[in-house]
Amino acid sequence: MNLPKGFKYNGICSGIKKKDKDLGIIISDCNAVAAGLFTKNEYKSESVLVSKDHVRSGRVKAIVVNSGCANCGLGERGKKSALSICNAAARILGCEKSEVLIASTGSIGLPLDDKKIAAGLNKLISGSSSSKAEDFARAIMTTDRYLKIKSVKLKSGAVITAIAKGAGMIEPNMATTLSFLLTDAKVKKPFLRSVVKSAIAMTFNRISVDNDQSTNDTFIALANGSSGIDIENSSANRDEFIKGVFGVLSELAYMIVENGEGATKVVKIEVKSAASKAMAEKICRKLSGSMLYKSSLYGNSANWGRVLSSVGSLNLGLNRGYDIYYGGIKVVKDGLSLYNNRAKAQRYLKDNKEVRISLDLKCGDAEYWIYTSDLSPDYVKLNT
Questions:
Q1: Catalytic status, residue 176
Q2: Residue finishing a domain among 258, 275, 297
Q3: pLDDT tens digits along 84-95
Q4: Which residue in the list 39, 142, 176, 215 is annotated as catalytic?
Q5: pLDDT value at position 175?
Q6: What's the confidence (pLDDT) of residue 380?
Q7: 47 and 188 belong to one structural domain
Q8: How much is the mean pLDDT over the chain?
Q9: Domain hosting residue 156, numbered range
Q10: Which of 234, 253, 285, 309 is the most buried (most CB within 10 A)?
């Protein structure tokens, strides 16, 4: 796998979890240009609050990430723990404490054992290397079933890599789960922030597993310029960079839905010919969060009555006159059921792990889509 120059990684077990890796780090050889996007949940993790403050400087040396504890709901105690970890890492790295960010994931309300983490930082940092990206990715996992890393080498020679964790509590707004984008391209902060903000809107903000937004959602992009390739000096480089960022984040977003807790299907819900984008998005998010509808998808039941009732409950003035498709199979025409197509639709659901549900509203030119998953008994078991 191609990885960007000038970054080192590591992941170890610090003791927060009994035996699994639970502490990871990303280190840039030189201070990197940084852009951060965070959860809009008004109840934010103390780790999020510290990183939001530190990333304002726009220059970052390292990101410390722990799994197993969200460091949320702890007030001043949680903030002190986060700052203590940043301070300890900064001392070892010989940088300012504001140049170290922290991200946490796990159970809410449990104290973060900053002493255990601080005790493991020397081992974590001294053992870091450019070849340990997978160790880092493993250390940040919670209920994830597999690692999530995607990388692309651009024609210019610059490399973009993205690493994420996420399986449940996925209904992002501005970011999702814990996600990190790294590049050795040379870019300025305004350009980097603009690119990742646009990419997030079309990738991570178009997925939903359970309609719940986390207190800890964190997305950090770092560009350290180690390749020496100035992306902003030509339109061809800029366009390729933008495409590369969109590409790796699109793949990660899809993987997060595919890896959703208990998921057996990836479901693309698309609304076309809507009167407005807001209308189309409202319908997508209603269906992606419907327990009734997602349960029927798990059972391979082509129960489009649940689509009709969910959309109707929004009172959008559609007057029943729209079509619904399961794949390419029309099951509703002008608001009326084509019940003879039920068997075909059932087979489509049974035979495919990735399915597409389309609504043609026939009232405008706007459209929206979202990826979601079905709802299985395993989701309930994992979240009890």
A1: yes
A2: 258
A3: 999 999 999 999
A4: 176
A5: 47
A6: 76
A7: yes
A8: 93
A9: 7-258
A10: 253
